[in-house]
Amino acid sequence: IRVHASMNSPPPPVAEFPYLPPAQRDLMVEVLSIVETGLGPQLLPSTVPSDVLSYQNPSGSAHGALDIRYGGRDSTVDFILESWLHCQIPTGALNIATLFVSLNSSTDAPHLLMEFIQGSPTSLVLLLDLIPRKDVVLHPDYLDEFYHQTDLDKQRQVLAKLPQVQPYMSPSLYVRSILSPTAIVVNINCGDGEQTMLEEIIRGKLNMICKEIVQIWLRLCVKTKLLSEVDQDILVKRDSLIKSKAIEIDLEVNLPRMFTPEIASRVVREIKEAYKVQDSGKKFV
Amino acid sequence: IRVHASMNSPPPPVAEFPYLPPAQRDLMVEVLSIVETGLGPQLLPSTVPSDVLSYQNPSGSAHGALDIRYGGRDSTVDFILESWLHCQIPTGALNIATLFVSLNSSTDAPHLLMEFIQGSPTSLVLLLDLIPRKDVVLHPDYLDEFYHQTDLDKQRQVLAKLPQVQPYMSPSLYVRSILSPTAIVVNINCGDGEQTMLEEIIRGKLNMICKEIVQIWLRLCVKTKLLSEVDQDILVKRDSLIKSKAIEIDLEVNLPRMFTPEIASRVVREIKEAYKVQDSGKKFV
After folding, report:
1. Chain A closest CA to B144's CA: distance in Å?
2. Interface pTM (ipTM) of the complex?
């Protein structure tokens, strides 16, 4: 599956996920296609430089790809971010594939996050959530509109019933806090030698659930809503905190280790620009 | 253990939990004793009428007890609520025991909630949490002060490692939302015939963890904090929503079924007074 492992081959389009096992790759490609078809006319062309669209560490043991496209005028989309990371680890290979669609402040509809984290051929951590833009405790009507009425928990329950599926706890308390009460945060663990079982789950139940949730989100994300100035200020501040914390907790810790500080700085700079988080120019050195 | 089952015996003090299995009763009594010793001088005498301090349904198949004591002047405690419910169900008996300490707006320290829900002799659902007063996504410093620095997640992890312990999901999305990211929300399920195993866990790890968490909370809850008027308004509104939703989702649904609408109205009226939620005078009929 390492179809682009040579340093001299042209960089792969981000959305090809060359290192993902086939079942996951097919699912990610299918979900991206649904999202891009749904949002298509709203998205501007990518402006990510080629050395961030595809990058690797000097020894060639870690590869990454990142694409970001902004939403056009009159779109509710702020940006869509697609990314994958691949690196050799003592137990085999680590693969992370991410889709994050961030909405702007013309709507309070949730952001979309879908992430695969795979550290072994027979297990897969999945994060799939519509990330709330408001404190749902203070805004029960928000919980009702986006989570109750859409029956999102039904999808989570279908997956949770499988004996191979265990809840997954992010080690970060902040990451746990940003997720909705219907978030799918699971470890699908099929045990030694059960690679076929994992593939079956991904091509079966998981495929159905992911597509259903993405379709629900696509219907929600297009509705603009005129917020009061105060509400909009809080929403923007909250969105911004989620993004800067994600960079601080995850990317600034892990990317320099995987790709050298120089390469990590280049990648993080692009993400910070999209996230509207000030780049300190810190080079992780 | 049904030491007060006769209709003619005097009503038991709330904190004796006469229907709880011994291991749970001992733990609840011990935790209450720690909390009451810690808060002691701050608590006013109970004003709950005797027909709410102890109540039962006409057939005598369901029993309940409720006590509420308010915090005195200069206390950070709004009120302490202690309650138990017991009723016969087709599979045996259902027991619910609750401790809820609500703080007032002289502090933003978390409320304390501890609840046992037991529907079979070999399994126990436990909720134990320091309930956040603020949106921790918008206030990462709050998360840091009350949850990171106190290392609360360590306690949760100790329990989660036991093979008999599974995460528990409240069917209510709102209840899921009010809990902190370090909340202990688990089903301890020891399987058929393993009543002794459940008792061992309660008297061992669970006893240690519950007492540790309550001690952490006692240190946090006494610190007053001068909040800005805006922050205080939001905190009061958020607290009030949590309480009115709890009544709406849980008590107003379940108590009338268990105790007849008349008795339920009487009990809910006392709770609404403490929660400062307006009583509509609704008699569930």
Report:
1. 9
2. 0.91
- Rounded mean pLDDT of A32-52? 93
The two tokens of residue B144 are 């840091």
pLDDT(B10) > 80: no
- Structural domain containing residue B80: 14-225
**pLDDT beyond 50 at B5:** no
**CATH classification at residue A221:** 3.40.1500.20
CA A115 to chain CA centroid, Å, is 4
Tell me whether residues A237 and B176 touch, CB distance under 8 A.
Answer: no
Chain A residue closest in CA terms to B186 = A167
User: In this structure, are residues A94 and A118 in contact, taking their beta carbons and an 8 Å threshold?
Assistant: yes
Torsion sign over Cα B227, B228, B234, B237: positive
In this predicted structure, what is the pLDDT of residue A3? 42
In a domain, B253, yes or no: no
Nearest CA distance, B241 vs chain A (angstrom) = 7
HSE of A196, CA atoms in CB hemisphere, 13 A: 1
pLDDT band for position B54 (50/70/90)?
A: very high
Chain-wide mean pLDDT for chain A? 91
Tell me which residue in B140, B176, B238 faces A174 most closely, judged by beta carbons: B140
Q: What is the mean pLDDT of residues B93-118?
A: 96
Of the candidates B29, B115, B32, B41, the one whose C-alpha atom is nearest the C-alpha of residue B76 is B41
Using the structure block, give the residue that is written with the tokens 């126990």: B124
Residue A8 lies in a domain: no
Query: Would you say B181 and A181 are in contact if contact means Cβ atoms under 8 Å apart?
Result: no
Q: What are phi and psi of B83, to 5 degrees?
A: -150, 150
Assess if residue A244 is contained within a domain: no
* Partner B, chain A 123-162, Cβ-Cβ below 8 Å: 135-138, 140, 143, 147-148, 153, 160
* A233-247 pLDDT tens trace: 999 999 999 999 999
Chain B interface disruption, residue of A134, A135, A185, most B CBs within 10 A: A135
Give every CB contact of residue A75 below 8 A, 6+ residues apart in sequence. Answer: A39, A42, A43, A104
Task: Report yes or no on B267 lying in a domain.
Answer: no
B176 neighbourhood in chain A, CB within 8 Å = 181
Which comes out higher in pLDDT, residue B90 or B185? B185
What is the number of structural domains in chain B? 1
* Structure token digits, residue B234: 């939001």
Quote the DSSP letter at residue B182: T
CB A183 within 8 A of CB A127: yes
Structure tokens at B166: 């599974």
Cβ contacts of B160 on chain A, cutoff 8 Å: 169
